[in-house]
């Protein structure tokens, strides 16, 4: 293609779902209520670890409208994405507070709930594992006694029988002994935080129905409709073609809707009532603890640098708190290991990353997938090292920034395309935040203003065969319908994909119709809408489909315009001769077969198809971690400015900034929005979100009255800027950007407040009491 | 969603409300008085309470509205916190406290009586009535009685079953007194208090009210004596006051007892300094 300025890509385009959302017209899964639908309620466990001696359901029939009850023994099959370790309904024992134990199906929701309360379960409490350290140390309490018999679903997950280890990933790079020897300064620290919630506005919801011919229809608020189909097919032993999964718009997901949980339950419930349509919608409390959560972590980090500040060695121990079942936690522990060093050149790296079983609610993906967690530990240690070296934290990051020619912890060779440009991000961050090397400023009121910074990177932990596909069809007026399996969860993917298509076809955005609903029946397969991979994967598929269309249009055009296809261009809804555009024909006259003046037709329907699959990914070597975990790295730098009151330890977040190497910003407003949303999520988590557990591992705060999230009045000013180092094989050079705003926030916030309070804040959430405890410790 | 059935009544008078309550009791049915419902509904959803009947107080004229008479202000028990923040300007401490409870949406529902009789520890709206020695008008089988607020709610007590709160009467001059108020939460301002301190100064004497630090809101004569003991330094008064709390400090997942101590000590010092400055 000849170079021409981009007219749609790189420009602000109103998001295609914007108006419906602003007017409240968008329908989410639970908004749809069909007559004769039956309602499912879950009975969940009041204990975190207990034997189930007996379940007595006899009294439920006293409640009017009850249709059926399902308990674990009705489907005693272990399911799970990575390790099949979880029965959809507990059998023999419960392993976390809130675990589903039984389902009641009734005509009305309140009848099902009333009946649930009549089920008598006799439990016998077991000792609990209340932290990942305990899980490692206390081998007398096993959460999964039969771990040895569990089926591993993917290569590269290493569960250790007779322990509470769901996965162990090892990274061994370089020569540690040499690394420590070359280090003049060594710092060591421990970090920890509890699991927390995704807190999406829309709680998880599903409807299911089994048609008389055996087809299973699932309507679910999921980030992975095709994944739901795959897992249901595998574990229920139903042909994939007989399962249809449909997803409408999601009201936020943040990774929490990539798990397959309620779908199994809804299927079992429908089956229990002869296949009738059933509806299962999480209450807020259930969404918080019964459905999977954001992972917790206990980490040890040790860094060594020479006197000039060059990193020489790094060692890590990550104990992720995966909760009672491994779900994606096993993958998160791997992802954290793969990028353990953050975006720095370190030749000698040692990392043991574990996903531990505990008696906490189980974890699934959370925006950033192991990286906000890893980055908190690493970025805090970097600041501690800077202090030790008496060096400016930004400077320390600058001199260690990873560059083309360096290798990652798993020894992938990096180049400008697959890495991006961290030094430029750091430089821009400095200007954006007015960062001076000077330390904190003291305000008139005696408050301390400090900027804390962080740098981050992330590759997407896609499976080696992650794919996306696109099908383009035409309407008779020449406008296009774009169908693909990407789910819209608020991130704006569908707008971005339409922009890529409009750009490639040189077509007005208004002539592109995007379907928001995804159906596994008629949309082409897509792995999942996760891992910041949609712009890249589906974007490439859009380009391939657009090229497929252009090829077909030129083919037909060459017949009608009596020339070679190579003589033609497509654009502005025309097919025209490159050298004499006045010889042209309208696309609309071609797309449903071209008709000669005499009435003969040629060509047939023009239908575009395209797909993309990630290339060259390999599983990691179990002993050294050697391997290629993801297609590309996105890098960036962040800052948080706080105003801290040394008297009360309260603080305000004044500013939060992100500079990201986006490769190519396809839609500036959406990209800025993604960064802001990401920063918000990261700050809310770091400053207040956390589950509190009592000694029995019961969650004390499973509701928004007591589970704190950041409110509108707590928002800082958000500053966003981009660097654009093209990803050579990305659509128009674009990289994945969706998750990145979150990653460095906890580190930057903690760095800012650590400096302000002169103590090492190495745990989350950072509430005033956290700092009070630490400063008290310093004094004593 | 509430899964059980219950009866709903909306009486027009206090007398009718009491009658309904009695009739239901005779039938062996448990009834609760109902105002904003933010607590009854939440607890019923969670399966913590399961009343057979609710008696809605919002239709009773005596429980509604507020009257501003020569020397007294009368605030109906069904008045919402939003009504207070919007209208009751002659009771500034009450307005301040109301404004910092929950969110506007919730305050549109939350009533004075519901807050004062809440099953939670906080019951912050009680504090201004305690500090102003207000009169609580309570109705029960034996008729309508005026009671001393502090005595009625001493040590966290609530009303006996079958009694209902009709209104509070506050001397206008006391309601307008100079006050101090500060609420400290775990993090977001909308959270429950880990320590709320309010105080008023009249005729040179400070009286202080507390919420969030013990399992109930209180004022305490002994503590007030300490706070007014000018023989002691401000920080000594603060320390001494804390040593005389009616109960051990709460230690829960919102805040440890140690941190509550730290916060309360600062609040007390700030309050004492505030009144030192203004006088
Ligand atoms: C988001 C949120 C934040 C909150 N934060 C705070 C806070 O910071 N500080 C604080 O103090 N509280 C706080 N609360 C608690 C709130 O004050 C209580 O929920 C209060 O009970 C609500 O009043 P209501 O009118 O809705 O009560 P209802 O649910 O109607 O009743 C509550 C109780 O009072 C009884 N009752 C009501 N009226 C009468 C009457 N006339 N006579 C006798 N008994 C009666 C009821 O039987 C019931 O036991 C918060 C609540 C919410 C929703």
TrEMBL record, chain A:
One protein family per Pfam: Ald_Xan_dh_C
Keywords recorded for this protein, A-Z: Molybdenum, Oxidoreductase
InterPro entries linked to this entry: Ald_Oxase/Xan_DH_a/b, Ald_Oxase/Xan_DH_a/b_sf, Ald_Oxase/xanthine_DH-like, AldOxase/xan_DH_MoCoBD1, AldOxase/xan_DH_MoCoBD2, AldOxase/xan_DH_Mopterin-bd_sf
Annotated transmembrane regions: none
Ranges where the Aldehyde oxidase/xanthine dehydrogenase a/b hammerhead domain occurs: 23-127
Protein name listed in UniProt: Xanthine dehydrogenase family protein molybdopterin-binding subunit
UniProtKB/TrEMBL annotation, chain B:
InterPro entries: CO_DH_flav_C_dom_sf, Diverse_Substr_Oxidored, FAD-bd_PCMH, FAD-bd_PCMH-like_sf, FAD-bd_PCMH_sub1, FAD-bd_PCMH_sub2, Mopterin_DH_FAD-bd
UniProt domain FAD-binding PCMH-type: residue ranges: 1-175
Sorted UniProt keywords: FAD, Flavoprotein, Oxidoreductase
Residue ranges of the TM segments: none
Keyword Plastid annotated: no
Cell division in keyword set: no
Name by which UniProt lists this protein: FAD binding domain-containing protein
Species in which this protein is naturally found: Tigheibacillus jepli
Species lineage: Bacteria, Bacillati, Bacillota, Bacilli, Bacillales
